[in-house]
Amino acid sequence: FEAPTSEVLGLAFAIVILIFAFGSVLAMGLPIGTAFGGIGVGVLVVTLASNLFTIPDVATTLGVMIGLGVGIDYALFIVTRYRESRRRGNTCADATAEAINTAGRAVIFAGTTVVISLLGMLIMGVSFMNGLAIGASITVLFTMLASVTLLPALLGFVGDRVEVTRWRGIVAAGLVAVALVGYGLKQQWMFWAAPLAALVMVAGSFIPALRRPLAARQVKPMQETTAYRWSRIVQRRPWVSLVVGAGVLIAIALPVLDLRLGFADEGNYPADTTTKRAYDLLADGFGPGFNGPLTLVAAIDTPQQLAAADSVSQALATTPGVAFASPAVPNDPTSPTAVLWTLYPTDAPQSVEAADLVTSLRNEVLPQAAGDSGLAVKVTGTVAVNLDFSGYLADRLPTFFAVVLALSFILLMAVFRSLLVPLKAVIMNLLSIGSAYGAVVAVFQWGWGSSLVGLGGSAPIDPWLPVMMFAIVFGLSMDYEVFLLSRVKEEYDRTGDNELAVADGLANTARVITAAAAIMVFVFGSFMLEADRSIKMFGFGLAVAVFLDATIVRMLLVPATMELLGDRNWWLPRWLDRLLPKIDVEGSSHNANAHDATSHNGMPVVNDPDFELEVEDVLGDDAARPRS
């Protein structure tokens, strides 16, 4: 049994980040418990579905990776909204209903977007990728359902205890995180933290200091928060922010222009493995191409074709890039119906020269040698398979991209009743995906810093990776887009002031999006500890994409473009407005009923006419600020 290092490390990081975000052990445990509940059911359903579909083994690992990230994120947004409502004086039942009616709607829409993006891979028509799409989408679906079904039940169970955290809980949670890190890294000396955590919980019943609740956090007024001040800086210099942010993303994306698709082989194993040493011995002793032989085969139906087979043998022996080519080997010496050649290139299997040799053989050398005999020589082998599979996917990528982009554009247009907002979202998400592709090419294909992530050397990018990364990253990017813009739209509907709506929307969601993104970055990044190169590549690409999307895109490009577009953000032709379905993501009908008792930020107004209470979206703590 191999310890699930990546999942365990991701869980440890999530515990720490959620404690800092919520300041509450119970509030930390709710998203994690909900995510694992959804993942457990999802993995069970995927196992059952494997009887109906061909689902590769790696689908479970990828499903857990994605489910852990999105499951915690979805529950994080709902718990945040619940705590905000409770601090406004609502009962537990009302707060739960409000959280599900607002953040829960956004979660359902965001999860649906991810599922649509994943199922878009079915367009590629590859059974392996169909299995990945089905397995990952099932896991995301059930983590989303757990967030809007299991989580409300848990909130009703814990009630007001979600706001109370004692020192024993914080200390024990920290020790559990230490033990999980030790388990994930296989450092047995760190295991002592687990029994010590249990000891702290027991001792907390007798030691007053451990039973003492933590002091309430001091929260700055909204206009003094870092996120609010940052939004104002960006809004004052929108063109500078747009140029700088887009320039950084484009620079990171530039290596994608050199993207080369293909599968890794034993030559990419770490240098200390016996597999890698054997690969190098063969290459040193017999030449680099010995590790990637080509097999050529042809059917023989006429004497002319049998004679042409000898011409093919002569042509192969003199072809540049061929180290050795065997003579034609018939399947039956007396009456052959097929002949076979074995060919060793002079270059390594992953080299561009080896791929060019296959193309040259198919398009020039073999047709010319066969002449008009009708002999059709087929080329196979590792290099040929990589070339064919990569070409097959490349031909279908434009259709896949177009379908996912079009569906996402229509959904966002229906939600936000706007043409420019979904267009901007699609363009920015493409920038973040392109940057992730560029980073993957730089590290895994060019070899920049490859030793830091335990790679044996550079190699082409797995052909399925760009498709899978696009589906997941685009879906996750839309998650953050929905959570941010839904708050901006809510403020705009209340105030009619685009500048104020952008500032308040960013300030209300910046820290919660940052916390959610940090969890995903650590969860995905921890998968770089896996031995499998493909999983390393996938985790690295997703971590980079989420980091760039939550920082440069959400905190720089989105407020800059929203400021430049002004009220045009929310323009939609009337005829199109009539055609589109009405999708209420943020529970507008619920919010409308509360307008008479709320300020422009949706917070209750106190008796003092000079002040109003406000809740920060991440921590849900009370703050006061002068009414504008």
Multimer state: single chain
In CATH, the homologous superfamily of the domain at 1-164 goes by the name Multidrug efflux transporter AcrB transmembrane domain
If helices are DSSP runs of H or I spanning 4 or more residues, what is the number of helices? Answer: 20
In the CATH hierarchy, the architecture of the domain at 1-164 is Up-down Bundle
Give the C-alpha Rg: 29 Å
Characteristics of this structure?
mainly alpha; single chain; Alpha-Beta Plaits; five-stranded antiparallel β-sheet; disordered C terminus; about 625 residues; two-stranded antiparallel ribbon; Multidrug efflux transporter AcrB transmembrane fold
Topology:
Blueprint (H helix, E strand, L loop, with lengths): L4 H18 L2 H25 L8 H30 L4 H28 L7 H32 L8 H19 L7 H11 L4 H4 L14 H11 L1 H16 L20 H13 L7 E6 L3 H15 L4 E4 L3 E2 L7 E8 L6 H19 L6 E5 H35 L3 H26 L18 H32 L2 H29 L6 H33 L8 H6 L8 H6 L17 E5 L6 E5 L2
Antiparallel strand pairs: 1-4, 1-5, 2-4, 3-4, 6-7
Helix pairs in contact: 1-2, 1-3, 1-6, 1-17, 2-3, 2-5, 3-4, 3-5, 3-17, 4-5, 4-16, 6-7, 9-17, 9-18, 10-15, 10-18, 12-13, 14-15, 14-16, 15-16, 15-18, 16-17, 16-18, 17-18
